[in-house]
Amino acid sequence: MRTLALKLDRASRTSLAEQIRLGITGAIEKGVLVPGARLPSWVDLAAQLGVARGTVKTAYDRLTDAQLVVSSRAGGTRVSEHAAVASPITERARSIESDLRSELYQHFLPGPAVFQMGVPASDCFPATLFSRLRARAARDEVEAPAAYPDPRGEHELRREIAAHLALARGIECQPSQVFITAGCSGALGVALRVIQAEGLKAWVENPGFLPSRRALEISRLTTVPIPVDEDGMDVGYGEVLAPDAAVALVTAGQQAPLGPTLSLARRVQILEWATRTGAWIIEDDYLGELQLTRRAAPALASLDRAGRVIHIGSFSKTISPTLRLGFAVVPPGLLARFDEAVACLASAPGPAVQMATAEFMRDGHYIRHLRRMKRIYAGRSQALLAAVRSRGFHAYAAGLAVVARLPDGADDKRIAREAYAYGLAPAPLSGWYCSAATQRSGLLLGVATAIEHQLPAACDRLQHLVRKFS
């Protein structure tokens, strides 16, 4: 039930009851009141507007006669499910159309849609189990004495993450070095505040994840695009082009979006550069151990002996992005500054979701879930790759995506926008590049949302769109 912002003109020749009817009708038609929305009672609305109850009753009766609202003793007065409401759909469509045209917000489209990247397979998640853990954690939170939670995150989750990273990513750290954040972007935001590199240069992968690159620019760093080849970021190129850079942002485990792992030689090279110059390396471990074609390469932070790597990750790809749970693993030399930053600027998300996730990890459910998802994703990747190649695309697997190269001149952004109307959400590869001069045309097809029985129709539609806009 909501308060209605109705304005009455008591000097008008139109009766007050009719003004109320017209105001509510307009709110329904504009989508301010959606089907099923509950209207205030006669008593409440009469008191709000300063009119007689009978005046409101007359207005409601007219709305009922027009089949715009329905009334019941138990449910009160609600907007009819069959009321003519065109604007909300139009506004939603406009919003999605705007996001499709925004290179930044293409990464946050509603879904899941076939080929959508960045989201896990919801059809394979142990939802019942995790829902039970969350419900219990929420109940415990409500029943506990009211107190401010630790802004660094719940100790139980920090402990579980530290233990998991030691086994799965080769990182030796204490729970005190783990900070819980609002997703991976939250971890990156805190890191950029702490290292205080305003006005300095930062290496970024080209191509690379646009939201992360924009985060550096918003933090007033000058981004320096570094090309990527089969060995990952070209560290030598960076040392020549910008040896004085203060930050390097790298996806060492599996480069986003092209897929190569940063080679051992380049890992040693970038660590030596950071140690020598005092630069900071932010390792975005966005996939963690979800590397499908081989055993997951250890994290870059596992080789860091000088304390120059800030390792960030999240549960968005492994559990769900709706948790908004990320983390940063911080070198000992930055602990005090991180403590201060999260206490004052970026406290951890609520305790309930943290405690549920900690229990999910502690009882072994998380590692079993990861093993199962690797098998499922590997199968989906192979099926998607075969389906795409059979339709003439030059394609290869890259992490939790398949990269489909397009002919020169193909408008991958237009193709992606058109595909969304058919329930498909490929990402245009060109949007990941730092400049038009280096752009390559292609489509990134998410593996997690590529369910096998949907592939023939989806790939046929994609093939048609590529031919149309190439």
CATH topology category name of the largest domain:
Aspartate Aminotransferase, domain 2
CATH superfamily of the largest domain: Type I PLP-dependent aspartate aminotransferase-like (Major domain)
Order of helices and strands: HHHEEHHHEHEHEEHEHEEEHHHEEHEEH
The end-to-end span amounts to 51 Å
Overall body shape: globular
How would you state the average pLDDT, rounded? 91
Strand content: 5-15%
Number of helices: 15
Spatial order of the strands forming the largest sheet: 3-10-9-8-7-4-5-6
- For the record, the count of structural domains works out to 3
* Rg estimate, integer Å: 27 Å
- The CATH architecture of the largest domain would be 3-Layer(aba) Sandwich
Q: Major sheet: size, sense and barrel closure?
A: 8 strands, mixed
Q: What is the CATH level 1 assignment of the largest domain?
A: Alpha Beta
By helix and strand content, what is the structural category? alpha/beta
Strand elements, count: 14
- Share in helix: 40-55%
Low-confidence blocks of residues? 85-90
Please describe the topology of this protein:
Layout: H1 16-29, H2 42-49, H3 53-65, E1 69-72, E2 76-79, H4 87-101, H5 127-143, H6 155-168, E3 178-181, H7 183-195, E4 201-206, H8 210-218, E5 222-229, E6 232-233, H9 235-241, E7 247-250, H10 264-277, E8 280-284, E9 309-314, E10 326-329, H11 335-344, H12 351-362, H13 365-389, E11 394-398, E12 401-405, H14 412-420, E13 427-428, E14 442-446, H15 455-468
Parallel strand pairs: 4-5, 4-7, 7-8, 8-9
Antiparallel strand pairs: 1-2, 3-10, 5-6, 9-10, 11-12, 12-14, 13-14
Helix pairs in contact: 1-3, 2-3, 5-12, 6-12, 7-8, 7-11, 14-15
